[in-house]
Amino acid sequence: MSIPHGKDSSASAVDRRTLLQLAGTVALGRAIGLGAARSARGITPSVPSDATETPRPYPFPVEILYHGSRARREIALTFDACPRKERPEFSTEIANYLQREQIPATFFISGLWAEHCQDGLKQLAETPYFEIGLHGYHHWKSSELTEQVIASEIERTRSTIAQMGYHPQPFFRPPYGDCPPKLVKVAKSLGVLTVMWDVVSGDPSPRSTADILEHRVLTLTRNGSIVIMHVNNGGIWTAQAIPAIVAGLRERGFQFVSVGQLVKHFDEK
């Protein structure tokens, strides 16, 4: 699939980008609704008796990161690792491909996923150009939680990964993209940057195909973009699509970096 190299300056190109972004958001929204229904049938949110959340310095230039600098030809591929009842919970094909190509990426890890997929976490955390972020312990919707439980979800995930010998970055991807103001407030008090995205791959949708994912990502990606995908087999076609996505983005001259690198250059105009 070929994508034009030039800037999408025409109205039709903008409309096409908007429609693709909307389609991806609708796909993600369906996943959010499914997750909320499962959450309602699951454990009642509570705070562990030993949970401690100590305020920390906040070193970041924004409260929510949707993208990096639009002046730099840098983009971040990000992958959520959500807990799933289905097995396997880890797409080794995605991680293996990124390792073969030596492509930096950021993985947002839930605490339950880390406990269930310790070999997968080891592979990700021990790859020097991969970055580990936080994705909540239980993968609950933040809008349904108290501030105390939100803080516990962040810190419990951080401590779970740390207890396994790894050091996650202070970046939090809200489960289901549910990002109420109270979440941002709590994350900031804990020295944690809330990380969203500006390119929705739509990979959780069963209606997507590898070609659809490729077209959507290549069409929507701009300087500084953060692309959301999944590495927990919640992304049905992600492993099949990622080689073509990487090749197409490279052809357009993009450099792959971690979320941490995007943050460093955020203020560049």
Major sheet summary line: 6 strands, parallel
CATH superfamily: Glycoside hydrolase/deacetylase
Q: Structural class of the helices, strands and pairings?
A: alpha/beta
User: How many extended strands?
Assistant: 9
CATH architecture descriptor: Alpha-Beta Barrel
| Helix residue percentage | 40-55%
Query: Can you tell me the overall shape?
Result: globular
- Summed over residues and divided by their number, the pLDDT gives a mean of 86
Q: pLDDT under 50 segments (min length 5)?
A: 1-14, 29-43
Distance between termini? 31 Å
How many helical elements?
9
At the third CATH level, what is the topology name? Answer: TIM Barrel
Number of discrete domains: 1
Classified by CATH, the class is: Alpha Beta
Order of helices and strands: HEEHEHHEHEHEEHEHEH
Strand residues, percent:
5-15%
Q: What Rg, in angstroms, do the CA atoms define? A: 18 Å
Task: Give me some keywords for this one.
single chain; about 15% strand; 3-stranded parallel sheet; about 270 residues; 9 helices; TIM Barrel; 6-stranded parallel sheet; globular; alpha/beta
